[in-house]
Amino acid sequence: MRRGSIALILFLFLMAGCEKDKDLADRLLRSSVELTDGYCLVHDDQVVLNHHDIEHYDYGTHLIYLKDHISTGELLEEAGNFTVYAGGEEIYTIGTQPGYSSYAPVGPFIWTHPTFYADNIIAIHYLYPYEVLEGNTADPREDPWIIEALEKYGQFYEGLQCEISSIWFSSPDHLALNLKLTNLDPVNYYYLDPEKMGMGLFHYFTNGLTLQHVETEQSYTNNVEHQEPNQWDSFDMEWMTLLEGNSSVNLTLRYNNFEQAPEGSYQARFMFPGLQFQVEHDDLAQQHGQIWLGQLCVYKEVVISHDLF
C-alpha cells in the first residue's frame, strides 16, 4: 500500500474521533514502513505486525498473544498468505483457511473466522505433526532465528510441556497413563486437571490415549464416555489447578475399558488439552496466574507383552 493511501486512512480514522481506531491507524502507518529485527508478519508486501504489537509468544503451542491495541479481526480480514520474518530475515510462509472449512492446508496455517481463540491471539497450526515427529520434515515454526528474535525483546515463553512418563498395564484392558507436566516459564499457569474434572469431562476436551501398532498401523483407543459441560462455550475455574513457574507435576489417568491390543511395539499418542474459545481476553489473567490455552501432542514408544499381566 502506497504512503498516500495510508495517509488517507489515517485522516479518516482521526475524523472519526475513535481512540482505538486512531491506535490502529498509527500502527498501520508505522508497520507499513518498519520491518524490525523482532518477530514480524508480512501480508502482500506490507508489514501488518511486528514486535511492538506482541505481548508474548507461547512456543509450546505457537500462540501469539497480542497487546491490547490490536486484535486478530484487524489482522485476518484478508485471506491469503502471511510471511514470518525474524531478525529481518524471511523464515517461512503461513497459509490461511476459514475456520468453518473441513479442509486444512499442508504446512503452517491460520484458521480465520472463527479463529477458535480470543481476539488477542493468533494460533499458528501445522500439518502434519507426525511427519515432524518421525524426522521426515522440519517444523518451520521452530527456526532458531525465531527464538532469537523473540528472546531479544523478552517475548519468548515456553508455555507448558507435557511428556508420557510411562504406561502401565494391570490387565489387557486396564492401564494407567502417567504424565509429567512442566512449566519452564517465570509465570504461573492454570491447567485443566483430570483429577478435578473427572475422566468424562476431561475427555470432552481430548480424545485421550491411542496406541498404534508400529507394524500393522492398527490403532487401539480408550472407551471413555465423554461428559459435556453445562454450557459448551463456558469454563469453570474449579476444573483447574495452578502450576507455578519453573516447576512440574505428575498426573495419572486410569483407563478401565481400553481396547485390547495384541503383543507388539506401539506408538502411544496423547493430546493434553487446554481451553480455547471458552476463554475471553479479559478472563486470561486470574488472581495467581494465567489460564493456559492450546493443546500439546505427545508421543512415546511402548511395548505390550501379555507376560506383564
Summarize the model shown.
The chain is an alpha+beta fold and 309 residues long. The protein is built from 7 helices and 20 strands. Strand 3 and strand 4 form a beta hairpin.
Structure description:
This protein has 309 residues and is an alpha+beta fold. The protein has helices spanning 3-16, 19-31, 72-75, 129-133, 144-152, 194-197, 199-202, and strands at residues 39-43, 46-49, 54-58, 63-66, 82-86, 89-98, 107-112, 121-123, 125-127, 156-157, 160-171, 174-183, 189-192, 210-213, 219-221, 240-243, 247-255, 264-273, 290-291, 295-304. A six-stranded mixed beta sheet has the order 2-1-5-6-7-9. Strand 1 and strand 2 (46-49) form a beta hairpin.
Q: Strand sequence of the main sheet, in spatial order?
A: 2-1-5-6-7-9
Strand content: 35-45%
State mean pLDDT (0 to 100 scale): 86
Helix/strand class = alpha+beta
Number of strands: 20
Radius of gyration: 22 Å
Q: What string, H for helix and E for strand, traces the elements in order?
A: HHEEEEHEEEEEHHEEEEHHEEEEEEE
Helix count? Answer: 7
Low-confidence stretches: 1-18, 27-33
Largest sheet: 6 strands, mixed
The backbone outline, from C-alpha atoms, is: globular
Q: Which percent bin holds the helix content?
A: 10-25%
Q: Please give the alpha-carbon distance between the first and last residues.
A: 68 Å
